[in-house]
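Inputs:
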Amino acid sequence: MNAPVSLPHLRVACSNCNLRELCLPVGLSHEQLESLDELVYTRKRIKRGDTLFRSGDSFASLYAIRSGFFKTRVASPDGRDQVTGFQMAGELLGIDGIGTDAHHCDAIALEDSEVCVIPYARLEEVSQRFEPLQRHFHKVMSREIVREHGVMLLLGSMRAEERLAAFLLNLSQRFTSRGYSASEFVLRMTREEIGSFLGMKLETVSRAFSKFQDDGLISVQQKHIRIADLAGLRKIVGQAGAAC
Amino acid sequence: MNAPVSLPHLRVACSNCNLRELCLPVGLSHEQLESLDELVYTRKRIKRGDTLFRSGDSFASLYAIRSGFFKTRVASPDGRDQVTGFQMAGELLGIDGIGTDAHHCDAIALEDSEVCVIPYARLEEVSQRFEPLQRHFHKVMSREIVREHGVMLLLGSMRAEERLAAFLLNLSQRFTSRGYSASEFVLRMTREEIGSFLGMKLETVSRAFSKFQDDGLISVQQKHIRIADLAGLRKIVGQAGAAC
DNA sequence: CGCATGGTTGATATATGTCAAACGTGGTGG
DNA sequence: CCACCACGTTTGACATATATCAACCATGCG
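Outputs:
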């Protein structure tokens, strides 16, 4: 499609990828695993700031993130836009394109990244023959729907500081499950992008960060975050019931 | 599961259901259509106010709405809740359960309704043999994801009146595609439920309705809505670009 | 017919947005 | 290599959209 950079066809094997347990069904025999190797023939590198696909692009492939960090965003005709998620290694991009054979959001790399290209026709074909793959793929899509319900809850019913606390906890949990520190990480996105995702202005994001720091919950220096009081953040997210 | 009412097993055929074009793949031969009849063995009636499933229920089936009207909502541990959508005839409920074999939201009938019960194991099995069904099901899930992106855009970036206008236009469009009037309909949900869905308080919903009426865009009398100026509503949704 | 539920409207409070100024920081080119 | 510049961030003062609280009204069900 509109690949900024595309590696020459690399022989790529899911069966010995160390992200396997993040993007593929687990508990398969070695033999079963090899049938998954048919899924991915190529990888693609995307430089920071470049787009993997944009709204309107015709849909052909899904992308599994091998390394790096992305945001997805939708735009309304009148120029507003909304970040719909931040994606990291092991997560799948492009599902939005299946419904109409065209993408409905932009996927933009927030750092130099690499993705596995999964031609959708092949995914359909292999999952037709290989039931665990079909089952797993359905689960991935279902979980994405559930995740979005969570975002709707956040956007529809939480206040600014609650949203930011929930956001930090979510990041922390995802870093943890990838073997990184739960309490110390570098944000890949700007305050404006966080604000767009959380439905608030960048100044409000900045003030909430400062407030958390004043309260001893985190320490923040630009993009570097250290969580000092995980339980305290959790209390902020969950305190609405107490407050009302 | 926790069916409030369940009809005795009724022989039910997708192949001569008049909602076919809404929930199933189109362009199939009569013979192909009959293979879909395996999907649905039973229907279930749900009375207004009763729940079809609730968060935590173990997941076994999807439900295609044959008639009636539902809302789905998620709840946070601290008692907040968020309506995640309103569903009408031809739409599918329960997809949220696939990912973890348990439901993550409640589905509540807003009027006496009837659904077709689609055992998920059967759906998987039939779609394993019958490619157009698999393809169609993927499209349905993908479109749900895209719909939710739209809701995120609405919640994250629109102001109260823009949200309500977008909501009315969305309802109007869905009624139209079911053969009902685009400009005159009865709301099945309360102001509070609209507000929960749109991320605002019921008073704000009510005030926005009144404002639209004062401006000649709609006439509203309790749950009865008549849209007088469709273009005017569209202008409200899309005017952010102009305003900034 | 009367009550319960949902809806409307008003007065006021408050969270967040807006506008503006100053400051850090990292990358680039002289 | 340093200095400068563009970009992102922080913070303050003020504006405003929406929430909150409260009273009253409509309606439809039992």
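Remarks. Chain A has two domains: 3-129, 158-243. Chain A touches chain B through 53 residues (CB under 8 Å).
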